[in-house]
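FAQ

Q: What does a record look like?
A: Structure on top, sequence underneath. For example:
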């Protein structure tokens, strides 16, 4: 009976998360249709190579990192926040598709190609953003999501995608939790590689279960004395982190000083995390926003997106309203990119600030910034 209930919960979980349509990378349909634009994604993965050009990496676990570069076409009919895919040969005018896929032979060659990509950007854009996907993703699902975020958020930095070996299958939630732990060493190595490039700084963006991989990788770096690599991290964003609150606090203790700025996107309406909580025996998840004061006290900024586009599990990646704010609003950019508090904080009493023009989005600033602003206000 428990197995049946667990399976039903997982069905509901996937329907809510939208993390896993069964997309394929390509090759694109030879129709002569051209994509709207192209996003270059550099890939580091602990998935095993499959030999299948439509899905070149499987859910098998590789003990070594594999590297590649993919040029992902954004279709002409693309709608912000969506990933238009096909389970058959994709049409570049209508679907995300890999226009090119090139494996890269080894760590040194990967660093050289990252440096070449950085050199092509304006000095202020010479950064590397590492995206870490969530539960129930095959390689196409996660790479396409990375390309969609890079395109819709107008990210000018170099996009490095870390793909841990998710099973990409509905019943494999426990397999994915184990794979997330397995994948932490690979992400720690990917961060180390990014830190050895000429990037001005390295930024991490983890979604859902991928946030667990991020915290475990940071913990791995700290516990093995790789503080120099941690020092290269110039910001972390965890969106809807599927992490037990107690486990998160334990991870923070092991990491010590967190990279700054450190931002978490939460939603009280995230039904997927509600189901995850039930699967975990009722233990609260960090992404549900159940303990915002604890996060503030640990120098973490919290973006409460509960009332933005339904506050869904994928709101960070799918909300046009949130994208507009990040792209155009100085306050949001300061939280996600700079180690500074906004100069026009609206409210100091409860640590919450509401965006002008988006009264449903609330930001809770770290205690450190609030204290500094309160002191400045008394002068």
């Amino acid at each position: 009976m428990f197995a049946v209930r667990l399976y039903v919960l997982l069905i509901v979980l996937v329907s809510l998360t939208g993390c896993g349509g069964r997309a394929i990378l390509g090759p694109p349909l030879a129709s002569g249709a051209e994509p709207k634009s192209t996003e270059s994604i550099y890939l580091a993965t602990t998935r095993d190579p499959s030999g299948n050009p439509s899905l070149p990496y499987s859910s098998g676990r590789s003990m070594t990192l594999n590297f590649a570069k993919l040029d992902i076409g954004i279709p002409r009919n693309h709608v912000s926040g969506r990933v238009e895919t096909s389970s058959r040969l994709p049409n570049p005018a209508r679907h995300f598709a890999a226009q090119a896929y090139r494996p890269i032979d080894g760590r040194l060659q990967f660093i050289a190609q990252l440096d070449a990509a950085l050199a092509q950007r304006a000095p202020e854009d010479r950064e590397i953003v590492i995206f870490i996907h969530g539960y129930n993703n095959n390689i196409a699902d996660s790479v396409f999501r990375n390309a969609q975020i890079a395109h819709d958020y107008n990210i000018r930095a170099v996009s490095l995608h870390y793909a841990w070996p998710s099973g990409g299958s509905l019943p494999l939630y426990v397999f994915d939790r184990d794979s997330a732990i397995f994948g932490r060493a690979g992400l720690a190595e990917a961060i180390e590689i990014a830190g050895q490039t000429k990037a001005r700084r390295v930024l991490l963006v983890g979604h859902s279960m991928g946030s667990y991989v991020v915290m475990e990788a940071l913990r791995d770096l700290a516990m093995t004395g790789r503080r120099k690599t941690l020092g290269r991290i110039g910001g972390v964003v965890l969106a809807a982190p599927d992490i037990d609150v107690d486990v998160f606090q334990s991870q923070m203790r092991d990491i010590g000083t967190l990279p700054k700025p450190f931002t978490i996107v939460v939603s009280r309406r995230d039904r997927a995390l509600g189901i995850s909580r039930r699967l975990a025996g009722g233990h609260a998840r960090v992404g549900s926003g159940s303990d915002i004061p604890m996060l503030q006290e640990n120098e973490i900024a919290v973006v409460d997106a509960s009332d933005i586009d339904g506050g869904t599990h994928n709101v960070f990646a799918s909300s046009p309203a949130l994208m507009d704010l990040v792209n155009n609003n100085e306050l949001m950019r300061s939280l996600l990119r700079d180690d500074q508090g906004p100069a026009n904080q609206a409210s100091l009493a409860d640590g919450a600030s509401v965006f002008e023009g988006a009264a449903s989005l609330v930001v809770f600033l770290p205690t450190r910034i609030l204290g500094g602003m309160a002191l400045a206000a008394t002068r």
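Q: Is there anything notable about this one?
A: The chain has a mean pLDDT of 84.
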